[in-house]
Amino acid sequence: MNEALQVKLPAGLSERLEKALDARASRDARLRRLRRLTPLVGLAASLIICAGIFLSHRRTPQRDTFSDPREAAIAAEQMLTFVSQELNLGLEQVASVNKETMQRIHNVLNEPFNNK
């Protein structure tokens, strides 16, 4: 009866099982080490971000770009003229788009009445 219950195991099964268990144990050990390092990595990343924000917002003393106030006034006037021209050009384009859009809306709304 004992012979009927015994199962023949493949050759090398115990060695393969030992290797698999050893590999699993070493992987588990690596995961435990990584889990211990995770909070430290997060803290380091937070410190780096805070340092970057601090350094990027440090104020440098303002210096004048013009020593002569008349030159500064001329440069400011030229810049304001340029900005004004660009703004006017943009407003003209928006006005033409608005006219076209309003005409299309008018046509769509009046279409049922024009077909009768």
How many whole angstroms does the radius of gyration measure? 39 Å
Overall structural class, as computed from helix and strand content, comes to mainly alpha
Portion in helices: over 70%
- Model regions low in confidence, pLDDT < 50 over at least 5 residues: none
Count of separate DSSP helical elements: 3
Helix and strand element order = HHH
Largest sheet: none
Q: What is the β-strand count?
A: 0
Number of domains: 2
Overall outline: elongated
Distance between the termini: 102 Å
Could you walk me through the main structural features you see in this protein, from its secondary elements to its overall organization?
It is a single chain. With 116 residues, this protein is an all-alpha fold. The chain folds into two domains: 14-57; 68-116. The protein is built from three helices and no strands. The radius of gyration is 39 Å and the shape is elongated. The N and C termini lie far apart (102 Å).
Which descriptors apply to this entry?
single chain, 116 residues, mainly alpha, 2 domains, 81% helix
Could you give the topology of this structure?
Layout: H1 2-5, H2 13-56, H3 69-114
